[in-house]
Amino acid sequence: MHITALFRPVLLLALLFSASLQAENTPPATASRVRVETTKGNFVIELETQRAPLTVANFLEYVKAGHYTDTIFHRVIGNFVVQGGGYDSKSGVEKPTRAGTPNESGNGLSNRRTTVGLARTGDPHSGTAQFYVNLTDNAALDPQPSRWGYAVFGRIVEGMTVVDDIGAVATGSSGKFDRDAPLQPVLIKRIEILK
Description:
This protein has 195 residues and is an alpha+beta fold. It has one domain: Beta Barrel (Cyclophilin), CATH 2.40.100.10. The protein is built from three helices and ten strands.
C-alpha cells in the first residue's frame, strides 16, 4: 500500500510529460496565409502546410525573395484556371527560378474550385514558382494510378471574386503568348505573408 502511494506522483509526472510531448507534435490549428495584391484587387491564400509541406516551403521561399513582385497572370482560361507568377511585367521575360519541386499531387487534396496548385511542364517534378487558381472543379488535374497530377497546396479564403474577375478578362494572343493571355495585363503587385 505504501509502495502504491510512491508510484502515484511518478505516474502523474509521466502523464504530464506525455501530454506535453503530444501537444508539441500536434499540427497548428491554422495554416499560414499570404495576401496576393493584384491590379484587380487582393485575395488571400491559406497554405496547406501539413498536406503539401515541400510545395508550401518552395512557394514561401519565392514569396520571401520578392519573386512575385511585378509579375503577371499570363494564362487565363475562363471556367478553368488563372495562372501567373513567372513572367516579369516590364520585360515579359520569365524570371529565373530554382530547381523543380518534388510533386506532392498525391496528398489527398483535389483540384476543386478555389484551390491553388503548382504549375509545371510535362515533367511531374518541374514545378517552380508559377501557380494557378482553379476557377471550377478540375478533377482532370488530380493524380491517377497511371500518371502524376498537379499538386494543390492552398485555397482561396478571401477574395475569390477578385480571382473570378481575373478569370473573366478578355484574352488572346499578346506579346510572346500565342493564346489565353490577358489583352490588358493583370499584374501581381506583390505577395506578402500574413502574421
